[in-house]
Fold this protein.
Amino acid sequence: MAEPQRIVIVGTGLAGASAAGELRATGFTGQVTIIGADSHRPYELPALSKGILLGDAEEPDWVHDEDFYQKNDVELLLSTSVREIALGDRVVVDGSGTRYPFDRLLLATGSRPRVLPVPGADLAGLHTLRSLDDSRALLAALRSGGRVVVAGGGWIGCEVAAAARKHGCEVTVVERLPLPLHPVLGDTVAAVFRDLHEQNGVVWRLGVGVAEFTGEQGKITGVRLDGGELLPADVVVVAIGAVPRVELAHAAGLELSDSVPGGGVDTDAGLRTSAPDVYAAGDIAAHFHPRYGRRLRVEHWANAKDPGTHVAGNLLGAAEPYTASPYFFSDQYDLGMEVRGLANPFRDQLVVRGDLAAREFIAFWLRDGAVHAAMNVNMWDDGDALQAMVDKQVVVEPRQLEQADLAGMVG
Ligand SMILES: Cc1cc2nc3c(=O)[nH]c(=O)nc-3n(C[C@H](O)[C@H](O)[C@H](O)COP(=O)(O)OP(=O)(O)OC[C@H]3O[C@@H](n4cnc5c(N)ncnc54)[C@H](O)[C@@H]3O)c2cc1C
C-alpha cells in the first residue's frame, strides 16, 4: 500500500499521543485523528501517584502543549469512547455511531485497574487510581485525613501509602504476598521497601488478603481480612494491578496473547497486530521482543512513550523492530529509583553495590554471569553505564560489580 492518508489512534494516553506527535515530527502530512475516552488532553500517569497526590503539583505532565494539536493539525477527540473496530470496512465507530475511516490504525487503549471481587466493592470511599480525575479525587480524600487502608503493595500501592503519610493519614497496607513488590524485587530488595514504609509510619499486613469491605449507609467503614481481622477505614485504595483494555481488539478478532500475565494484544517485533495495517503500543501490547525471544507486556512509562514514538515510523511503512530494554522509575518519600532490564529475582543472582540499609545502592541481577537487570536507588551517576550493561548483557565477575568503575566495564 502507498503511504497512508488517514491514521486513526484509539487512546489518548502517552503511547497514543507520542505516536501522534512523532507522525507530525517526521513530516507526515495526511490526516491524524486521536480518539480517547478521557476528558483531559493527553497526560502522563506517573505524577498521579506522586506530585499531584502529594499536593506538590496542580497539573500532570502533559504530553504536548495545549496548542500542539491545533497547530499540528492533529484532530483530538476527547470524551469519546470507541465502541467498535470494523476491520473489513477499515473504520472505527464511536459510542454515538460516528465512523472514522483509517488506512492505518494504532490501538493504545492502555489498562484499567484490577478490581477486587469481594463484597462491598461498590461502597463510597473506595478508590482506584488510573486517571487525573481519580488522582484529584483521592487527593481530596487524603487531605481530609483519617484512616487509610491500601489494598496492594505494588508500585502504585507503595506510592499511595507514601502520599497518604505525607497528608498525615494513618496508613495500613494489606498485601497478600510476604513482602511488598516481592515478585519484581525478590526477598532482599523488597525488604528495603518494607522497612522504608515501616520507618515512615506505615503499618503492614503482609501475607494476608482482603475478604470484604464493610460499610454503613453506602460508605466504607472498614476492610475485613482473611482470618477475620477488621481494619477500620475512612478511605480505601485498591491498587492490585491493572488489566489491559483489549475488549475492542478482541471483538475485532485480533489475536490476543496467552503467554503474558493478564493477556494483551499480540504484536510482532514491529508492533504490528495480527490484522493488516493495525498496530498496538503501550500497556495493551504483548510485543515480541527480539532480545528476550518472547512476548513481553510492560506497564511502564517508557514502554508507552518510546514504542509510541517508534511505531509512528512503522505506521508510515517501515518495519523496524522495537528493541529497547524495559525501564521503570519510582519515588517514595526520600527514595528515588530506576530499574533497567528484566530480572527474575527468584532465579537470577543478586549482587549489591553500596548500602541497602542506608538506601543508597545499585542492585544487579545476573543470569549465567551476564547483567540482566540493574536498579539504582538514590545513586544517580551511573545511569548510562547501567543502561549499556543491561542492553549488552555484559558478562562480569560479581565481585567487580561491588567496587569497579562501571563505565569502564562497558567500554
Ligand atoms: C498512577 C500511576 C502511576 C504510574 N507511575 C509510573 C512511574 O512512576 N514510572 C513508570 O515507569 N510507570 C508508571 N506508571 C505506568 C505508566 O505510566 C503506564 O504504563 C503508561 O502510561 C501507559 O500508557 P498507555 O498510553 O499505554 O495507556 P493509558 O495511559 O492507560 O492510556 C490509554 C487511554 O486509552 C483510553 N481508552 C481506552 N479504551 C478506549 C476506548 N474504547 N475508546 C476511547 N479511548 C479509550 C483510556 O481512557 C486512556 O486514556 C504509572 C501508572 C499509573 C496508573
Summary: Residues 10-16, 35-38, 45-46, 48-49, 81-82, 108-111, 129-130, 156, 245, 248, 282-283, 299-302, 304, 328-330 surround flavin-adenine dinucleotide (CB under 6 Å). The chain has a mean pLDDT of 97. The radius of gyration is 22 Å. The chain has eleven helices and 26 strands.
